[in-house]
Amino acid sequence: xxxxxxxxxxxxxxxxxxxxxxxxxxxxxxxxxxxxxxxxxxxxxxxxxxxxxxxxxxxxxxxxxxxxxxxxxxxxxxxxxxxxxxxxxxxxxxxxxxxxxxxxxxxxxxxxxxxxxxxxxxxxxxxxxxxxxxxxxxxxxxxxxxxxxxxxxxxxxxxxxxxxxxxxxxxxxxxxxxxxxxxxxxxxxxxxxxxxxxxxxxxxxxxxxxxxxxxxxxxxxx
Length: 222
Hints:
By secondary structure, this protein is mostly helical. Helix content is 79%, strand content 0%. It has two domains: 1-69, Orthogonal Bundle (Arc Repressor Mutant, subunit A); 87-222, Orthogonal Bundle (Tetracycline Repressor, domain 2), CATH 1.10.357.
């Protein structure tokens, strides 16, 4: 009995140490990503140095390379971090997507999309612009291409749902509707309006109205 109790206590201590190590590693990784976003945004992809990111994060540069291997992989991690947000969930599993699925009108679905998309853009737009500003860097271009593919897949699912449940304008097919969602819901459109002084709330309202008018057979009222 004593041996069994001692073993249980030892197992608990080992598990506690392992959990602490995982938590510390996760916190360090988060700190490096936060530092990388700041350095990328300030210096651009080409100008950002792994040593500067390490210094800002308070870790050795070897730790950055051990965790992310290359600057391109670190940029991809920044993208993923921004898209997943505090929930650490991909967009189809985030709350706003459930609101899209349960919407009873096309406008309501688009309003939920606009709110969720605006929240993601508030986090990801700056790093997106950094990557797009380095078109001759293969790693940065690969990150942009991957992001655009994921966006097209997700927005394509939304366009298909709108077509099936609420109907698109007569001259639109799902692919064309996806193109419009990608254009109006892009980081460049978001950042342009933000530079003109628009709030996230105003942008989301505009995006809802614009998409309803451009996509839906029955746009409803603004």
